[in-house]
Design goal:
By secondary structure, this protein is an alpha/beta fold. The chain folds into two domains: 64 residues, Ubiquitin-like (UB roll), CATH 3.10.20; 138 residues, Rossmann fold (3-Layer(aba) Sandwich), CATH 3.40.50.11690. It is built from six helices and twelve strands. The protein has a nine-stranded mixed β-sheet, covered by helices on one side. A three-stranded mixed β-sheet has the order 1-3-2, covered by helices on one side. The longest helix has 34 residues. The protein starts with 31 loop residues before the first helix and ends in a 12-residue tail after the last strand.
């Protein structure tokens, strides 16, 4: 049969090839999926364990690295290094960063020889400790006992043969209210004694003559020099000038007056001199 020219060809739908049809249902999971999930969980747990162990080892290494194993002591003279280390013994082996240094500073300040103490952390495991010790000013006579005292009037220690190397004057009258248990030093009297000794530090030749001081009157310091029994009233100022004045006039004064009790050097125009009772005096003029 022949085709008719001019007529369009009819569209005929071709049947679909069933060989290429997509499955309508998803395949179920195979048995190996459970095994894979369990292995993954164990793997994560193992990695986590490694991290924890690693962090623990790292912390242990750091703790060991920054554990205090060296304490350097400087500035101590009267206290031995061993005595200082015994006071701060708890520091050794502790953490350089966690150590409570203020606690050990307070312990050091309990020592009568320690005026102040400072600490410094030095990486990786060292503590530097600097001690400022008290400086004895004099030997204070408090009741029947002798004590080393500093410029603030604080008692450092009992005075004994171990301190014989100190060339210090004896100070009487420091205690304003004697106590049967603990002597209480009057701070005003201690300051007067400190000012006197500080003034004499500029005149060492004169300082060598001073053997004893009395500050019972906080406004009138009394001095004994060398083997001279005369009490010298020097007041509360011009100490050096007044003592030098006495040393210059002492030979002449003793020629005129024997057995002098005290000489009052607080006055410029006339110097009152009092002799002991029952002593003889040579007629004298104005001094």
């Amino acid at each position: 049969m022949s085709e008719k020219r001019g007529l369009p060809a009819a569209n005929v739908a071709a049947p679909a090839d069933k060989r290429f049809r997509r499955a309508e249902t998803r395949p179920g999971r195979k048995g190996g999926g459970w095994l894979h999930s369990t292995a993954l969980r164990w793997g994560v747990a193992f990695v986590f364990l490694l991290v924890v162990v690693g962090l623990g080892l790292s912390s242990a290494v750091r703790a060991q690295m920054f554990s205090i194993n060296r304490i350097v002591v400087r500035g101590n003279a009267r206290l031995s290094t061993g005595e200082v280390l015994a006071i701060v013994d708890g520091l050794r082996g502790g953490s350089l960063f966690a150590a409570n240094l203020e606690t050990y500073r307070v312990k050091l300040l309990d020592s009568p020889w320690v005026a102040d103490a400072t600490f410094r952390r030095v990486l990786p495991a060292t503590i530097e400790l600097r001690i400022i010790e008290r400086v004895p000013m004099a030997v204070g006579r408090l009741g029947d006992q002798l004590y080393l005292v500093d410029a603030a009037g604080l008692i450092i220690d009992d005075y004994g043969p171990q301190y014989a190397q100190f060339d210090l004057p004896i100070i009487d009258g420091l205690v304003s209210t004697p106590s049967a248990t603990t002597p209480v030093v009057d701070p005003e009297r201690a300051r007067l004694a400190a000012r006197f000794l500080d003034a004499l530090s500029a005149a060492p030749a004169l300082r060598q003559h001073v053997s004893q001081i009395d500050v019972s009157n906080a406004h009138n310091l009394v001095v004994l020099i060398d083997q001279d029994p005369a009490q010298l009233y020097v007041g509360d100022k011009d100490f050096v000038a007044r003592l030098q004045r006495y040393l210059e006039m002492a030979p002449t004064l003793k020629e005129q007056i024997s057995d002098i009790d005290y000489v009052d050097l607080r006055f410029e125009e006339r110097i009152p001199v009092n002799r002991k009772k029952n002593s003889t005096a040579v007629p004298k003029g104005k001094l």
